[in-house]
Amino acid sequence: MTTERPFPLGARGNILWMNQDIFSAVDAFIGETIVAEDEGLRGAVEAAEEAGLPAIQVSPPQGKLLQLLVRLAGAKRILEFGTLGGYSAILMARALPDAGRLVTLEAKPEYAEVARRSIERAGVGERVEVRVGPALEELAVLEQEGVDPFDLVFIDADKVNTPNYFRWALDHTRPGGLIVADNVVRDGTLAEAHNPDDAVKAQRALHEMLRGEPRVSATTIQTVGVKGYDGLLIALVEDA
Ligand code: SAH
Ligand code: DHB
Ligand code: MG
């Protein structure tokens, strides 16, 4: 691992020297110090790995940010798009009060099964409901059921649909609530106006959609870490 600094702090060229080893080493240090994983979370990672799920869950520092946002928003009802093995669902459910509820949507039944077991083992089974099916279809079902507004929505499923999920979230999140979208920066391709990739186009469309949108106040924060270079959009829902 190349962690010896060839330039003094702040010197030109520092950015070029930065690399994935350093991003990962810093995440590891943060993990050892202020955001240690507990048994339940480690169990969820192991179960996901054993079942062959891709290791694309939020990193521990990102997960801790989600927990802080849940608490800062005073969230009691959370909606998540993209369950995978339940890692972020467990994290957010842990930050909820006892009577809090989290609904998480997952397209793949086999992922949802792995997640349900890990969520149960982590002790938050009563707070979390995993719903299986393409999220847009599940949203229609929630709508039919007359779902109450959410306090926080975390969008982390198929990236082409992030603007669609965001649009739905805008109509179903209470004022003062938060809408968070993962993976919007995508190695910096967010800045590429002519990038042909549909996932990139979708993140640009999301940002264009929020240009002058009075119902939210939003920002996008670029991130580096074990998951490379990406970023998340955080939007506060304004009073109507
Ligand atoms: N939030 C998780 C990671 C989610 S990865 C965590 O941090 O722990 C993205 C997930 O979205 C995958 O499990 C994938 O199967 C799911 N997904 C993809 N397309 C979807 C769709 N149309 N509806 C619901 N889930 C979908
Ligand atoms: C992928 C999905 C994610 O939510 C993520 O954070 C990283 C990668 C993916 O589908 O590859
Ligand atoms: Mg993600």
Tell me briefly what this model is:
With 240 residues, the protein is an alpha/beta fold. The protein is built from 9 helices and 7 strands.
For the structure shown, list the relevant keywords.
binds S-adenosyl-L-homocysteine, 240 residues, 7 strands, alpha/beta, binds magnesium ion, binds 3,4-dihydroxybenzoic acid, 9 helices
Verbal overview:
The radius of gyration is 18 Å and the shape is globular. It has helices at 14-17, 20-33, 39-50, 60-72, 87-94, 109-121, 135-145, 162-171, 198-210; strands at residues 77-81, 101-106, 128-132, 150-155, 173-181, 216-225, 228-237. The model has no long low-confidence stretch (mean pLDDT 94). Helix 3 (39-50) runs antiparallel to helix 6. 41% of the residues lie in helices and 21% in strands. It has a seven-stranded mixed β-sheet, with helices on both faces. The protein has nine helices and seven strands. The protein has 240 residues and is of the alpha/beta class. Magnesium ion binds next to loops. S-adenosyl-L-homocysteine is lined by residues 56-58, 82-84, 87-88, 105-108, 111, 134-135, 156-158.
Strand content: 15-25%
Ligand inventory reads: S-adenosyl-L-homocysteine, 3,4-dihydroxybenzoic acid, magnesium ion
Mean pLDDT: 94
> Please, what is the oligomeric state?
single chain
- Our measurement of the CA-to-CA distance between the termini, rounded to an integer number of angstroms, reads 51 Å
Count of beta strands: 7
Order of helices and strands: HHHHEHEHEHEHEHEE
Form type: globular
Which spans of ≥5 residues are poorly predicted at pLDDT below 50? Answer: none
Report the radius of gyration as a whole number of Å.
18 Å
- Order of strands, main sheet, comes to 3-2-1-4-5-7-6
The biggest beta sheet reads:
7 strands, mixed
Discrete helix count:
9
Structural class of the helix and strand makeup? alpha/beta
